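Support request, please re-run this one:
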Amino acid sequence: MFSHEELQHIQDELNIEIPQSYWEIMTNFPYPEFAEANIVVTYLKSSYVLEDTQAHRKRGWFDIDWPNHYLVIGETGCGDTYFMLAGESGPVFLADHEAGPHPVEKLEKCKVANTIEEHIKETIDLEIECQEAQRRRAERKKNKKWWQFWI
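Re-run finished. Output below.
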C-alpha cells in the first residue's frame, strides 16, 4: 500500500499529476481480489514507480525517448513496461520491447486495458486460470494409469 505522502512525493518529484484511479487503487492496496491470486500487477513500492519513471526519462526506453507524462506503474518481468498517462484516470498501456507497437507513435495500439481496475481484474483472472490448469495437470499426472506414458 502506498501512503498519500508517497504518492504526493512521486507527483512532486516527477512534476506530474498521478491518475486518480491509480491513486485510489494504490492507497487501498492490498485489495480482496489479490487474496485468490499470488501475483503482482503493479509495483508494490512507490520508490520503484519513481525510480523507473525517472530512469526511462533519463535513458529512454530501448532507444525511444520516454515522454514526461508517462507514469511507469509496473513491469512484466521480461523488460516490458506498464504505464499510464499523467493526469488521466484512463487506460493502462504496455510498452513491449520485443514486438509491440511504438509506445509514443502508436500509443493507442499499446493499450491493454481501459482502466487500471480492468487491468488488475484481467491479470488476476488469467493467473487464476493458469493456476487451475496447473492444478488439473498435476492431478492428471498423479492419477495416471501405469500405461499412460504421455501424461
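The longest strand covers residues 70-75. The chain has one domain: 4-123.
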